[in-house]
Amino acid sequence: LNALQNELGPYGLVILGFPSNQFGKQEPGQNSEILPALYVRPGGGFVPNFQLFQKGDVNGAKEQKVYTFLK
Asked: How many domains does the chain have?
């Protein structure tokens, strides 16, 4: 996503990151663990250059309002 933001940001694209554990169990940790986990993954030192929101649900009773709107 950093590369996409770098390439298309000058044209007005804004990347918004919404972590969720409902995408194949990719974010099982707490909000406080997401950014540090990204930083230490292979190729370490990753720092997002886009807005990263708190972890939330995409579906179900606790679905984030942004997903309700997009549906």
From this structure: 1
